[in-house]
Amino acid sequence: MSGCLDNISCPGWTDAVAERRNMIASVVSGGLFFIGWWIMIDAAAYPKTTFDPAYHSPGVFSTVAVFMINAVSNAQVRGESFSTGGCLGQTGARVWLIMGFLMAFGGLIGACWILFGAYVVPAGVADPWPGVAIFLQNALIFFSAFVFKFGRTEESW
């Protein structure tokens, strides 16, 4: 799945991009992750509304999920790594990866729940910005995990 755009040819710039694919994916992923947490810090420091500290939980779960997803290489999931040993081998890598994806989706669903349950539906909330920031944080962290996981090649490893 990580090579779905490998066969597209555009004269001129594709060779330069293909050589720097890992660097571009890492920078884009890190930028998305940074922007997500920066938005959340902005929402926590927002002076007009009260911000419950428990609302940081989806972001923490999404951050842990990013580390879980990217701790397993694509070769380990496919069973093509040099050593098939370790904790359950290919099956353990797949279980670890699916648990990471489930945590990422759970963080995103939790952020939606907080957005609508605490900031959109109740009539007494004047400004929904903190809820939108929670959702944006988790969406950006979620997309950064996908960019880093599927945007890189494993040739530099």
Explain what you see.
With 157 residues, the chain is mostly helical. The chain has one domain (23-79, 88-151). Helices cover 66% and strands 0% of the residues. The model has no long low-confidence stretch (mean pLDDT 83). Keywords: Membrane, Transmembrane, Transmembrane helix. The chain crosses the membrane at residues 23-41, 53-72, 93-116, 128-148. It comes from Actinia tenebrosa (Australian red waratah sea anemone).
Layout of secondary structure:
Layout: H1 14-19, H2 21-44, H3 57-70, H4 74-78, H5 89-120, H6 129-150
Helix pairs in contact: 2-6, 3-5, 3-6, 5-6
Order of helices and strands: HHHHHH
Envelope shape: globular
Average pLDDT: 83
What number of domains?
Answer: 1
Beta-strand content: under 5%
Quaternary state of this entry equals single chain
Classify the helix fraction into a percent range.
55-70%
Given the structure, what is the number of helices? 6
Low-confidence stretches: none
Helical/strand content category = mainly alpha
* Biggest sheet layout: none
Radius of gyration of CA atoms, rounded to a whole number: 19 Å
C-alpha termini separation:
18 Å
Record field, number of beta strands: 0
Q: Any descriptors?
A:
157 residues; mainly alpha; 0% strand; globular
Brief write-up:
This protein is an all-alpha fold and 157 residues long. It has helices spanning 14-19, 21-44, 57-70, 74-78, 89-120, 129-150. The chain contains 6 helices and no strands.
